[in-house]
Amino acid sequence: MDQARTTISKIFNGEPRSYTRFNLTQNMEGDNSHVEMKLSSDMDDEVEANGVGENVNQHNRPYYPSKLKQRSPKTICGYVIGILLLFIIGYLIGYLSNRSTDKTEIKSDCPVINEIAPVRAEAVYSLDWSDLRALLKKKLTTNNIISNLKEFSSASHQAGSTGDEALANKIMGKFKTFGMNTWTDEHYVKVHEPGSSNNRVLFRGNVMGTTEGYLAYSALKTVQGAALYAHYGRAEDFRRLQELNVDINGKVVLVRAGLSSFADKVANAANLNASAVLIYPDPVNYNIKDDTALFGHVHLGTGDPYTPGFPSFNHTQFPPAQSSGLPSIPAQTITIRQATEIMSKLGGRTSPDGWSDGMLRDTMYELGDDGDIITVEVKNVLIQKKIHNVFGVIKGYTDTDRYMVIGAQRDAWGPGYARSTVGTSLLVELARTITDMIKNDGFKPKRSIIFASWSAGEFGSVGATEWLEGYLTSLNLKMFSYVSLDEVISGFDSFKAAASPLLYELLESTMKQVSSPLDATKSLHEQFAGSNWEKSVMEPMGLSHSAYPFQTFLGIPSLSFRFTSSAKLYPFGTIEDTDQNLERYTSYNTLKLAKTAGEVVGLVTLRLVHDNLLKLNVAKYTSVIRNYVSQIRSKVESRQMSGRLPSTVTMQWLLSAHGSYDRAASSLVSAIRNSDLDDVEQCRIINNRIMRVEGGFLSPYVSPRESLFRHILLGSGSHTLAALVDHLEAIKGGLESADIDQFKNQFALATWTIQGCANALAGESPDTWRYRVNTESDSCSGSQWMEMCTIV
Description:
The chain is α/β, with parallel strands linked by helices.
């Protein structure tokens, strides 16, 4: 009977079968820094096999079950009733203990999440949406934001420094105080720091003052060449110079900061064989002191460029490698004073219209001539640093193994008040607010929320990208959205956002529900959207957005937004990024703007974890694809009419792929319309289809080492539809780079990527698609279908 009781107890008091687990695994060197995240649904609770032992009576003689036959019927009935009573008692004990597992005990000393509660099939009733909105607005307070801003402000917290680590410990402590599961993620990354002797810039043989700023990941060398002014160093600026027959080869190019990333400027110059790039802040764009230095990086990518495509857990495990985004030429920032010394003395041709609108003193903004020789010496030092990402999680109650991430950069080169302090403060305040709603107000999020504090963001989202590379497969399956809190405030009179098209509808509805910080009688939408909200608010997502690797490398619908100024650029990456300056740039509305930004992120988050159905609009990508198809079709027809493109290049397959996605998206929208959205399991099935879409646009034909941002619609590289449009432009101009065979190859691969995404969304196989296309079109054949998919 004791054995039966033990068995029953194990069956009904065992842990649930389905759960998600994060493990800390020790690597071969004994280094506990290697963090491995495993997602599983294995049954860990195993009932031990119970052998039949030899029973003994009170006289220690063997007692055989066969002697039961000699018992009276009354005795046998007693045994049966006793067993049934034990079974019922065991069942009740198991049921009660099983219910008690809803309150999972948090292990505050655990470096990672050990267990996430299982998925429950039954519905979990939570507060309605109007209650949630009111609670968020009430509990997210400016007093707490002020307290966080003071606590997380730091004069020195560069990545991997003691100041950075101290902030990480503070954030970890806050998460633990809120009752969240916490862990850290450790990486060893390579970064550039200034050498023992400063980098130097010489003009006509004279040293141009002290050069304190620097650009991480610049080529380390000394070069010399004639000066050439190239406006902002954008691709269109260099095309303008080429149209004027200006020779760029071997020149030291001077460009203004702003309008594009430092990395883009240097890459554009290097592609045209310039010898070096100098970047300066023009007073027309920046309101900073003449001697204020600029800091930044020039890696045309994100993450550690010396472990491209794989995580920097320990460099000794990996062979030497470099990202293709590292520049081959040196690059350096100079101050306004240094730029004035050089630019005011340049001779040569007059610059194109619109290029002389700068405000450097006594400067005509001429292009420069062969006698204006500049020498650039870059002596940065490559070092290895240990960095930590910090995480806290709020567990969901139904789809616990599905989660979104809210992230903020923690490090900065200088004070970094707007760059990192504001975002970190809002991250902690949102974590406090939502955990308080769960503990005290009955809010039960259906999905989990991970709060992440990233390190080494100043070097190109290094901490965040290394985490993505480390857990790529698991995150692809379970993560459904990312929201960035970086640089959310740098002004007050403009609101800009960059996001996946899947999130456009959710962002627009959120803007209609949040009051404007400038006029409480208006919503954000009324204040900033104008007659066309997408045109007024939305901007392309690029390297300057910390959400970019989540969107284009991992394929996760992501959102980044900011309150900014339409006048001067905020001095990010300088020592002037302080609380006093931010107040001036926001017209002393920093706290109002911070609370509003917190409400935007909070409402987006609550909507994504509260509803049974994910608020991601898959139909929006139809118009994005259509726009690219229209551009490509127009240019293909034009090039074929001029004889520059062979007639064998057909738009048929791209049009068919676009149609397939349109039909699949429409079918899903119809299925949602006809579904019972209170059915948790049915919604989970639909959500799984929705979660496949963004990742479906990642090209499977490119190497992460060569092209990290594989998204064919929003990424960068020759695999994208934007690159196909540019390639057709090159064919128009007859440039040598216009390789028609390469175009045909990329055209076929991009087409099949779109078709593959449509197939996944619709649940179709390639054979199904081929059969449908062949039966719907008189001009299609199986051999043509195979030819389209063949690399030319």
